[in-house]
Amino acid sequence: MRVLRARTLGFCPGVRRAVASAEKAAADAEATSRRSYVLGEIVHNPRVSARLAGLGMGRLDDLDALAPGSLADAVVVVRSHGAAPATFERLAASGADIVDATCPKVAANQKAAASFAARGFLVVIAGDKGHGETLGVAGHAPGAIVVSSPEEALAVPADRPIALIAQTTISEVEYDAIRSALLSRRPDLADSGGVCAASRERQSAVEGFRGLVDAVVVVGGRNSANTRRLAELARSLGIPAWHVENAAGIPGELGAYETVGLSAGASTPDEDIDEAEARLLELARLPGRRQATRA
Predict the structure, then answer these.
(1) Any catalytic annotation for residue 201?
(2) What does CATH list as the number for 2-11+198-285?
(3) Between 3.40.50.11270, 3.40.640.10, 3.40.30.10, 3.40.50.360, what CATH number should domain 13-102 receive?
């Protein structure tokens, strides 16, 4: 078997920055005998979460239970997906020392959402409902609506100006379809964009596999939106694709393929990628493997 790595894969700059911020916060907290926490998962990857837990960093999920002053001896890192202003206010009231590790691109989308809302626009966010990033952006624009499909976009009220903002990890195809639907309702749609260049690069790299590989493996957290989209993109190109969290999730049947493309989400560390490649090559060496036909 030949394993062909995508030309762009793994940690993006925003994730690298967030993980480094969390690791430094954990070290600083230990040095000053304080507690340390991350708000949710710093990024959607179990290996990264386990690494931070090993550094003594806990995880905060239920902010409603926080009492004023209850985190006065703690450092809390806001994850790369960002958070709503109300979340920052609650953390401040708890007395926490806040480290904001929001991805700069996400922060730019938050600022755009707040600006449009202040000018009377209905802010529509193209992305995944319930995702930490879309919830955070929506929190900066009261009344914002998250839509995940053109059909949902067609149901958006059109009685006032609309501004469209992307979840940074949405695909260009999804975003364009939602934008077209909104344009049919409001030709004066304000298109703020917001798809991250890092997401586009990883998607383009998967598209580059077409005609070169027989199958694709995408490595990354099960709850990682950008990783899921990479696997979906490969399948849409007619290439058999598997989304696995790590090397242990790679099925034995992949050993039958002659050439396998290897990609990874923006929150996937190098160790997971290297171990996945080693696992694929190991499968190819097992006895009884035969070459698979191209899909």
Answers:
(1) no
(2) 3.40.1010.20
(3) 3.40.50.11270
**Four-residue CA torsion sign, 210, 213, 216, 219:** negative
Q: Which CATH code, of 3.40.50.1100, 3.40.47.10, 3.40.50.300, 3.40.1010.20, is assigned to 105-195?
A: 3.40.1010.20
- Going by C-alpha positions, the residue among 103, 66, 108 that lies closest to residue 87 is 66
- Mean pLDDT per block of 10 residues along the chain (295 residues) reads 95 96 97 96 94 96 89 96 96 97 97 98 97 96 97 97 97 96 97 93 97 98 94 97 97 94 97 97 72 36
Which of 23, 41, 133, 151 is the catalytic position?
A: 133
* Residue whose structure tokens are 């036909």: 293
To the question of pTM greater than 0.70 for the whole model, the response is yes
